[in-house]
Amino acid sequence: xxxxxxxxxxxxxxxxxxxxxxxxxxxxxxxxxxxxxxxxxxxxxxxxxxxxxxxxxxxxxxxxxxxxxxxxxxxxxxxxxxxxxxxxxxxxxxxxxxxxxxxxxxxxxxxxxxxxxxxxxxxxxxxxxxxxxxxxxxxxxxxxxxxxxxxxxxxxxxxxxxxxxxxxxxxxxxxxxxxxxxxxxxxxxxxxxxxxxxxxxxxxxxxxxxxxxxxxxxxxxxxxxxxxxxxxxxxxxxxxxxxxxxxxxxxxxxxxxxxxxxxxxxxxxxxxxxxxxxxxxxxxxxxxxxxxxxxxxxxxxxxxxxxxxxxxxxxxxxxxxxxxxxxxxxxxxxxxxxxxxxxxxxxxxxxxxxxxxxxxxxxxxxxxxxxxxxxxxxxxxxxxxxxxxxxxxxxxxxxxxxxxxxxxxxxxxxxxxxxxxxxxxxxxxxxxxxxxxxxxxxxxxxxxxxxxxxxxxxxxxxxxxxxxxxxxxxxxxxxxxxxxxxxxxxxxxxxxxxxxxxxxxxxxxxxxxxxxxxxxxxxxxxxxxxxxxxxxxxxxxxxxxxxxxxxxxxxxxxxxxxxxxxxxxxxxxxxxxxxxxxxxxxx
Length: 587
Ligand SMILES: *[C@@H]1O[C@H](CO)[C@@H](O)[C@H](O)[C@H]1NC(C)=O
Ligand SMILES: *[C@@H]1O[C@H](CO)[C@@H](O)[C@H](O)[C@H]1NC(C)=O
Ligand SMILES: *[C@@H]1O[C@H](CO)[C@@H](O)[C@H](O)[C@H]1NC(C)=O
Ligand SMILES: *[C@@H]1O[C@H](CO)[C@@H](O)[C@H](O)[C@H]1NC(C)=O
Ligand SMILES: *[C@@H]1O[C@H](CO)[C@@H](O)[C@H](O)[C@H]1NC(C)=O
Ligand SMILES: *[C@@H]1O[C@H](CO)[C@@H](O)[C@H](O)[C@H]1NC(C)=O
Ligand SMILES: *[C@@H]1O[C@H](CO)[C@@H](O)[C@H](O)[C@H]1NC(C)=O
Description:
Layout: H1 3-10, H2 12-26, E1 63-65, E2 69-74, E3 80-85, E4 93-100, E5 105-114, E6 118-126, E7 132-141, E8 146-153, E9 158-166, E10 173-183, H3 185-199, E11 201-210, E12 220-228, E13 232-234, H4 244-251, E14 256-257, H5 265-268, H6 278-289, E15 293-301, H7 316-333, E16 340-345, H8 352-357, H9 361-372, E17 377-382, H10 396-408, E18 417-421, E19 424-425, H11 432-443, E20 449-456, H12 462-474, E21 479-484, H13 506-517, E22 523-526, E23 532-538, E24 540-547, E25 554-561, E26 567-574
Parallel strand pairs: 11-26, 13-21, 14-15, 15-16, 16-17, 17-18, 18-20, 19-20, 20-21
Antiparallel strand pairs: 1-4, 2-3, 3-10, 4-9, 5-8, 5-10, 6-7, 6-9, 11-23, 12-22, 12-24, 24-25
Helix pairs in contact: 1-2, 7-9, 10-11, 12-13
Bound molecules: 2-acetamido-2-deoxy-beta-D-glucopyranose (7 copies).
């Protein structure tokens, strides 16, 4: 600790003032919208490192990129923006050269409109060597402004051209309030830590007194966490049924799971009309016995490759009937046992059911599933939405569009929807600013986000990147659960958490360290003169033992610390002379 912070610690106000000012400039801005707005919004971070971000100085700082033309325009209300027109190629637009610093994280936002139609506009950073860093995309339309939110991690130091792309060369690209804000890794981490402290923990106040309300000072309060409230889980497969090593490794760490393949249609009905749930049932029973929650994965998978062998050749009416039987069978079988269903897996990348049964096929399955079992959250479950800024098939904007369509379908207006984000990252540096921006956009839908299949492909820094992905997920306020999706140690080990003997790999160590970091170690605190003590605890279940300072009589209680009771207060009453003290806990 240096002298300056030491002095500050004595002067509490000084720290608040100092860190308060610092954070204002650097705090990440989570605001995002999925609406196309006629009333536009302000520029984030004052534009960050962008020169003339709001075009109030004409097009100063901006250039023509490619062959089109670029000019400043004015809305009827007098707001200035930039327009690229007479475009010939998809990347003909306006650009600005920005200086990137290797390793820095860049949060990007812009308001986009096109002169006609409705299409995906994406943003890229072009390096002097011609390499492209993809910063994100939005579906833009005419008549209103859409928010593009994204980001990059710079993999080199030097200049890059920020520019916009749209396939349709007839459309003009319009933009306003373009912002690019750099963060160091340290600043990013500090923001994560602040969110974790705010969103995942609550202050608990203990008041210890005699029956006559006189405070007891110096009473000892032993606090032991017995369960975490944040669902952190791991996918399992059928090998768990006959391996106690696997069972012990899994049950001692996780509170939620999903099965790799065992609930899928191709596993439970290999032959038409011959359902076999033996393995899935046994796994459900095992998991239930250990009080671990289950995400049902999945009812349908929209990828034509992963249908039961007999399904692709069915005529539409037959498929409709078979699908109805499937959904009824599996949903009723596990009714009341699951916290979630992945109803139609990967329905952004694929459209097997839409092609065969019509545009509303997925939407209808969500309605049926919810009608059969009201309690599970009904999820979309997609890859590349937060992990890949380049894949235009599953951008946050497309995710939002699909989910809105599902919700508009008759019967789905009150659907308890869930936003499933597979989070299957490649082997390189995860694009955390993009991941966060994508989650911000999706969070604007106000449904819970889950990282459902967290995975980082094999590469040099796999364990470190896995940690970065899990931490980014945990520190997003809208994320309500994470399931890690390792590959089985019995098969090709792309991301094993353990070896064949269930000893941790470095990836497994990362997971254990995070579980440890996100829970409270057993601790003892003492009450003040006022019989009072306050502490910040991770949400979860606790066993609390309060011991009288003189008589050493003690009382033990269970305590649930939740987010909703942000003013948790626990009142403990003790009797001075009776060895078994009585208590009341008000939570
Ligand atoms: C850009 O921000 C200004 C205020 O700073 C606002 O008046 C303007 O409408 C915004 N433009 C868009 C397209 O959001
Ligand atoms: C940075 O990443 C981009 C996109 O993956 C790639 O094209 C480029 O070669 C990389 N540059 C360096 C210096 O690694
Ligand atoms: C309350 O009870 C405690 C323990 O019996 C006693 O020491 C204390 O004096 C009492 N206080 C009042 C105000 O009666
Ligand atoms: C457990 O059973 C699976 C088949 O369900 C088998 O492949 C595996 O080898 C068995 N493992 C052990 C440890 O017996
Ligand atoms: C169902 O599956 C189990 C496990 O694979 C197998 O042992 C059993 O023979 C199957 N039952 C039928 C009727 O095929
Ligand atoms: C599961 O929860 C029940 C009820 O809370 C409890 O009695 C039981 O001991 C728990 N089982 C395990 C394996 O934790
Ligand atoms: C899909 O459902 C919507 C209602 O959500 C309806 O307006 C539309 O006509 C349906 N489309 C098809 C192809 O059935």
